[in-house]
Amino acid sequence: MAGRIRGRLGRRIRAFAAVPLLRRFAYHARRLTGDVDRGFFLRLALGLAAVVFVAALLVAAIEGPRASIGEFVSTLSASFYWAVTTVMGSGDASYVQTPAGYVVSWLLVLFGAAIVASITGALVGFVIDFLIKEGQGMGAAGYRDHIVVCGWNPTARELIQELGHDEYTTRVVVLHASEKNPAGQGVYFVSGDTTSAEDLRRAGIEEAMAAVVCPADPSNEADMRSILTVMAIESIAPQVRTVAEVNNPAHVEHFRRARADEIVVTSRIASRLLARSSLYPGLAELVTDIVSGGDGSELYRVNLPDAYVGLSVDDLSARMRADHGATLLAVSRDGHAYVNPPTDFRMQPGDDAVVVAVSLGTLAPLRLQHD
């Protein structure tokens, strides 16, 4: 019973410590105290204790009886308690009765006020520093299972808007070399270098669900920097899935060597969609509506329930429509997508599906593990 209670208490404490705001406070506290000499605090504590002890000794010598050592020690302990409470602002003013005792009491009160002012000033300074650094993007995200957007461009802006409207909500952190948050409210901003391990850690890359790498401009140099960003992520957080936007199709192989999990060449997608739309009118609008979450057409990749194992494609399509109001687009197996598979294709354990539906409903979104 006691072990179970301790286990529950430990889980609650860990959950409380994982709150992003507390983790940010902890980061700034470490940052501010990292270069402080630990011996300074020890000397300060000893100095404070010495002042209180000397004041207690003076009051005991002035006010207390000195007939025996026992009485003096008893008076000294009581005086020490009085001195501590006086410094804290709650001491008994009637404890001292002589002019010399009054002087010691007044000095302790002033000493206590100075300590309270110093502590208050330190706390206010910490809060001000926290707010300023957070506003400048110099803090740490403190999130878990979030998405880190590395870099900023129009694609990143549209990406954040799309994530904000998805029912499977997740927190987003933008890591970009800028003085202000380019994403606006609702998105945590980290100002820094996307290729820097320290800045990636401030963005919480080691505990992120995925990282999206966006080139800063359409140049080849931006692609090279994106490759360095992918390599930096892989070096410190290989378990995190990386999705990279690529400017030049010729650089795709380099991104693969850097171990990017998914590579999107926006120019190639756009050109192919334009070509198909020129042959089949309305196709561009249809595809855009599907991928951008139009009316009743959210795009999802979901796990298939065990009950669907062994079904044919036609049976699976019918079950998806009947059970979930979803339209089957493709089946994925062992990293390969089967779009319009043959009629003898049957579901196997571990298969997942790409569907279009109004909402997830009871379907479970796919959570892939990093290779």
Automatic annotation (TrEMBL):
Q: Which residues form the signal peptide?
A: none
All residue ranges annotated as the RCK N-terminal domain in the record = 144-265
Tell me the PROSITE patterns matching this sequence: RCK_N
PANTHER family attached to this UniProt entry: POTASSIUM CHANNEL PROTEIN 2-RELATED-RELATED, POTASSIUM CHANNEL PROTEIN YUGO-RELATED
Residue spans crossing the bilayer: 42-62, 69-91, 103-128
GO biological process terms held by the UniProt record: potassium ion transport
Q: What is this protein called?
A: RCK N-terminal domain-containing protein
Q: Which UniProt keywords apply?
A: Membrane, Transmembrane, Transmembrane helix
